[in-house]
From TrEMBL:
Pfam family of the protein (one): Glycos_transf_2
UniProt-listed Gene3D superfamilies: Spore Coat Polysaccharide Biosynthesis Protein SpsA, Chain A
Entry keyword set: Glycosyltransferase, Membrane, Transferase, Transmembrane, Transmembrane helix
Residue span, Glycosyltransferase 2-like domain: 7-176
Membrane topology field: Multi-pass membrane protein
Organism listed in the record: Paenibacillus hexagrammi
First-listed, main subcellular location of the protein, grouped into a coarse class: membrane
Protein name: Glycosyltransferase family 2 protein
InterPro entries listed in its UniProt record: Glyco_trans_2-like, Glycosyltransferase_2, Nucleotide-diphossugar_trans
Membrane-traversing stretches: 238-259, 271-295
Entry annotated with the keyword ATP-binding: no
């Protein structure tokens, strides 16, 4: 087997604090993999600046000028983690044989990349990095993440437990991923849909090397909600079922009321009446909200807006013309 060209894609949003260490560690990984003849010497890392407000892009340009492993992509504005990642993957597939995606904050074990490459060379198209321990995350992050995976699985979405976006994908799987035209990106749900031969590699998740999580609770909830409503119709089915049960109950109640009326007993006050009106009003609002969520999704998909806009590139021609050898 010729040595494959590897590109490590790293989405970066306001990561000036960690970036030097990330570049250092990833360069070390690339260096030793080349040394071991596991990957081609034209392998690189692609740092995608997701519209950072700090010095992330100038740093990337600076690294690019001194470190041949470093290439960069600058998005015109903040597109979000998933889209920034996709931008990097789609760029890299034009010259790489396989692509590893990893977060900038060094929470994922860079040493696992070697194992990814070994699996790829054994013939696997997709290698999922699976977190073995979450001991360094706060209990809150752990609990919410766990609840999220459980909920997703229960709603019939096929995602790998404890797998984030740390994975290797071969060029041909990325070519297939490119055919997915969805705007509501949830890559960890989409990749398993591709099929192909895949395997898992286990690693320990570490603490963020520096800087703060760019996923505050609000973003995390939005991400989870997106993941569920983009992949599952269970919530809407639940609403339908609830509507069905309520309708059945109201028919029974109606019959009861009519019989009561015929027998001469009158309606005893309006409290119960008002309460039931409220209840039904509430249920209807809930149902409408959920339906609105799906309609909103359709609206977004139909618009076909570009997912990201690339402003600048820092990728040398030799990288773009990379050949496996
Ligand atoms: N990120 C990004 N755009 C965003 C938010 C985050 O590219 O709008 C990147 C960020 O720089 C990091 C990765 O996505 O490399 C994961 O973010 P973070 O580590 O903050 O999330 P957490 O690990 O806390 O879930
Ligand atoms: Mg992180």
């Amino acid at each position: 087997m010729t040595n494959p060209v590897l590109t490590i894609v790293v989405p970066c949003y306001n990561e000036e604090e960690v970036l030097p260490e990330t570049v250092f560690q990833l360069s070390g990984v690339l260096d030793s993999l080349i040394e071991e003849q596991l990957i081609s010497s034209s392998s690189t890392m692609l740092l995608v600046d997701d519209g950072s407000k700090d010095a992330t892009w100038p740093l990337i340009e600076q690294f690019h000028s001194v470190n041949p492993f470093v290439t960069g992509l600058k998005l015109a504005r903040n597109a979000g983690h998933q889209r920034a990642l996709l931008a990097g993957l789609m760029k890299a597939r034009s010259y790489a044989d396989c692509v590893v995606s990893i977060d900038a904050d060094l929470q994922d074990d860079v040493d696992a990349i070697r194992e990814f490459v070994v699996r790829y060379r054994e013939g696997y198209d997709i290698v999922y990095g699976i977190r073995q321990s979450r001991s360094t995350d706060t209990w809150f992050k752990r609990a919410t993440a766990q609840g999220f995976y459980k909920l997703m699985t229960r709603m019939g979405v096929n995602i790998h437990y404890n797998h984030a976006d740390f994975r290797l994908m071969s060029k041909r799987t990325l070519d297939e991923l490119d055919k997915f035209q969805e705007v509501n990106l949830f890559l960890r749900g989409m990749v398993p849909l591709l099929g192909f031969r895949s395997t898992k590699v286990y690693y320990d998740r570490k603490e963020r090397f520096a800087g703060e999580s760019k996923y505050p609770l609000k973003k995390m909830l939005a991400f989870a909600f997106d993941g569920i409503t983009s992949f599952s119709v269970t919530p809407i089915r639940f609403v339908t079922a609830m509507g069905f049960v309520l309708s059945a109950l109201s028919i029974v109640a109606g019959i009861y009321a009519i019989i009561g009326k015929l027998l001469g007993s009158t309606v005893t006050g309006w409290t119960s009446l008002v309460l039931s009106v409220w209840l039904i009003g509430g249920v209807q609002l809930l149902a409408l909200g959920l339906i609105g969520e799906y309609v909103g999704k359709i609206y977004k998909e139909v618009k076909r807006r570009p997912l990201y806009i690339i402003e600048k590139e820092a990728i040398s021609d030799s990288t773009q013309l990379a050949q496996s050898h």
